[in-house]
Structures are given as structure tokens and as C-alpha cells.
Design a protein that fits this description.
CATH topology of one domain: FAD/NAD(P)-binding domain
Number of strands: 19
Strand order of the largest sheet: 6-5-14-15-16-13-17
Oligomer: single chain
Helix content: 25-40%
CATH superfamily of one domain: FAD/NAD(P)-binding domain
Distance between the termini: 16 Å
């Protein structure tokens, strides 16, 4: 009997990881991505233990770690350089057995793509129709091609068209009150001692992630009206952060103007009613787009991918009637496992932003800073563990031809 088939709509981190996981459990998978390229060359990412554990389950963690810089040093400061909290990456690694790492998104995408046969990736094509097909299957149309599949994975991002199709009355994403500018430096940065760092001002945050070659990603998150754009974004950042502590001016000096990205921060404040409807599963930002203040967005998408694959691993190589019931049960299991956890992480990320980067009142900022300085290091570690200490479900690889 042939393998079950899936179409993954979206070739980002979540979609590619879902495809890897589904292939591991014996499914035939086609990934359809509307963009002409599958990387985001202007950004970097931190992966906490939960994300790395998910990648290990998918069989790609070693390659990711080899392209990453472990995050042991750094922490949070005020704009004049005074330390608020130290990052103890070694303590977190001792607790979890897995390091936090920083990696360019383009490298992560490249590693994930390499784990999928090239013929299973359709680039530069947009899904235009998803409809029920005979036998409870789903018919997916993109370009001049129409496929029938047992499952569609909606990994098409925060502005997901498939989510709108499933829940037309859902309000969709809303502006979170912050806008973010970011880039990867064009060259190694002198004096970049910290692997990862955040600096909190009044309604502003500047952070960086170091990479193995000495370059770094920086981001500047600012309270601003939605849609605000600058004529010269890099010049504006150099002006805005000129008096902030080293190495912030050096990071900006090592950046080319054409490499700066600027996006508003949006999130799904209203939860979707379910992550699975019929034979369609929502995954990643399409299901639970959150603010970046905990650095968990990509990690939660990776958790989704592993959980979906593990849930569907029991729905292979069965007769049609049994397979239909098994897939429905598996998607119910996926929804039950993922929706409560992602709701909690999204809520905590929103709160972290309000008490961190978005805080503007001078008295409130002073009280927050004092509270952070008085917080024992062990409590800081426990705060990170709340979200990073996740155990992946077991995936049993199917016996299949490559």
C-alpha cells in the first residue's frame, strides 16, 4: 500500500520541519512555498533547548549546532552599560543537557532544506485552492498543478490564507505596539564579548546574537505607530543609539544600509478555536503567532512539527477507513498537545514585552530594573526553564525508500 500523502503550505522553519518529521514517519510530502527563495538572509535566531531537542528528534541538530555559536555569556543591561542580569548559559546547559545557540536564519533554512529531497520542494508557487476531495481527502491547487492529499499542513505564516479560510470570523493578527529593525553585520565586530545581549531603554530594546565567524545579528525593537518607516533606517538607528553602550555603535557601524530589515511586530491575540479542522492542521505562526520577547516563536514551530509527526506516525499503512479515523484521532491529539502550551508561551511573551522593551514610565522602569538586580540567578534560570524544558514525543522512523 502506498504511503499517506501531505502537502505543506509554506517553506519556512515550521513548514520544512513538518515535512522532515512527516517523511520520518513514512509520509510522502510536497512543500509548496510562494517565495522564490527559502531563506531570510538578513536575520538571525536563537534556539533554546526545546528547539534544539526538536531538531535532534528530526535528525538535524548536529548540523545546526555545527553552524551555530553557543550562547554562554551576555545578559541584560541599561543603555549606559550597567548590568541588570547575567546570562548563565552554562547553567542552563547543565540543567537541560542542551545549549542555547545562535545561527543565521539562512543557515538554518539551508540545513532544513538539505534534509528534504529537492523534488519535494516547489518554490515560487502559491496555493490558490484547497477543497475537499472524494474519500475525505483534500485537493490542493497551485499553479497548473492539482494534488490530492490525506493532509494539508498550513504553515503559511502570520497572515495565513488557510487560517482565514478555516475561521473566517477570526480577527486575525493585530499590531503589538512595537516595530523591529534588524540586520546581520557585514563583517566581524571588534570587542563583541557577549554571545547574546539585550539592552532595555524606555520603550526601546537593542540586542545582538553572535555567530561563529565573528559577525552578529542585531535588532532594535521600538515602541512606534504601526506602519512607521524611516527614509534611512540605518542612519536613524545610528542616531537613536549613538549614546548607548559598546558594542552597540560598533554593530551599527559594521552594517550595510541595504541589509537592514524593518517589520512591525504583529501577533494573534485572539486564539484560534483549533489547530486542526478536518484534514488541515495549522502550524507555527499560522496557528499561534507571538511577540519575539521570549525568543520562542521558531522553537514553538519546531515543537509543532515534531508533535504533528509523532501524532501522525500511527496513521500510516492502514486500510482507507481505518486510516481516515486514525488521521482524525492524530490531529485531535496534536491540537490537544499544542494549543494549551502555545497559548501559555504567547501570553508570557506578551507580558515580557510589556514589562521589558515596551515599558516607558521612568518610575516603572526604575522599579523593574531594581527588581531584576535583586532577583537571584537561580530564579532567572528557572524562568527560562519554564519554556525551554520540553521533552519531544517519540518519533519512530518508518521503513521507507529514500
Amino acid at each position: 500500500m502506498s504511503n499517506n500523502t501531505a502537502v505543506v503550505v509554506g517553506g519556512g522553519i515550521g513548514g520544512l520541519s513538518a515535512a522532515i518529521g512527516l517523511r520520518l514517519v513514512g509520509w510522502d510530502v510536497t512543500v509548496v512555498e510562494r517565495a522564490a527563495t527559502l531563506d531570510d538572509a538578513g536575520a538571525g535566531i536563537s534556539l533554546h533547548a526545546n528547539g534544539m531537542r526538536a531538531l535532534a528528534t528530526l535528525g538535524v541538530a548536529d548540523a545546526v549546532e555545527a553552524a551555530s555559536r553557543r550562547q554562554y555569556t551576555g545578559g541584560t543591561r541599561t543603555p549606559d552599560g550597567r548590568r541588570l542580569a547575567l546570562m548563565d548559559g552554562a547553567a542552563l546547559e547543565r540543567e537541560l543537557g542542551t545549549p542555547i545557540v545562535g545561527i543565521p536564519r539562512a543557515d538554518l533554512h539551508r540545513i532544513l532544506r538539505a534534509a528534504i529531497p529537492p523534488n519535494d520542494l516547489v518554490i515560487g508557487s502559491e496555493v490558490t485552492d484547497v477543497a475537499t476531495a472524494p474519500g475525505s481527502r483534500v485537493r490542493v491547487t497551485y499553479g497548473e498543478t492539482t494534488l490530492e492529499a490525506d493532509l494539508v499542513v498550513a504553515a503559511d505564516g502570520i497572515n495565513s490564507k488557510l487560517r482565514r479560510r478555516l475561521f473566517p470570523s477570526h480577527p486575525g493578527p493585530v499590531y503589538a505596539g512595537s516595530t523591529v529593525l534588524r540586520a546581520i553585520t557585514d563583517r566581524p565586530v571588534e570587542g563583541l564579548a557577549d554571545d547574546f545581549a539585550l539592552t532595555w531603554g524606555h520603550g526601546a530594546e537593542f540586542g545582538h546574537i553572535g555567530f561563529p565567524d565573528g559577525r552578529a545579528e542585531w535588532h532594535a525593537t521600538l515602541n512606534a505607530p504601526a506602519g512607521l518607516r524611516y527614509r534611512d533606517p540605518l542612519d536613524e538607528m545610528r542616531r537613536r543609539f549613538a549614546r548607548w553602550h559598546d558594542p552597540i555603535p560598533a554593530l551599527l557601524a559594521a552594517t550595510r544600509p541595504e541589509d537592514v530589515l524593518h517589520h512591525d511586530v504583529n501577533e494573534l491575540v485572539t486564539p484560534v478555536p483549533s489547530f486542526a479542522v478536518g484534514r488541515i492542521a495549522l502550524l507555527g505562526d499560522a496557528a499561534h503567532a507571538m511577540t519575539p520577547h521570549l525568543g520562542q516563536g521558531a522553537c514553538q514551530a519546531l515543537e509543532d512539527a515534531v508533535t504533528l509527526a509523532a501524532s501522525l506516525g500511527t496513521a500510516t499503512a492502514l486500510d482507507t477507513a481505518t486510516a481516515e479515523a486514525a488521521i482524525t484521532t492524530a490531529l485531535t491529539r496534536y491540537d490537544a498537545a499544542r494549543r494549551p502550551r502555545t497559548l501559555t508561551v504567547a501570553r508570557d511573551a506578551r507580558r515580557a514585552g510589556r514589562m521589558g522593551q515596551q515599558l516607558t514610565n521612568p518610575v516603572a522602569v526604575g522599579l523593574r530594573n531594581a527588581a531584576i538586580r535583586l532577583t537571584p540567578p537561580g530564579a532567572m534560570v528557572r524562568t527560562v526553564l519554564k519554556h525551554a524544558d520540553w521533552t519531544p514525543p517519540r518519533i519512530t522512523p518508518a521503513s521507507r525508500a529514500a
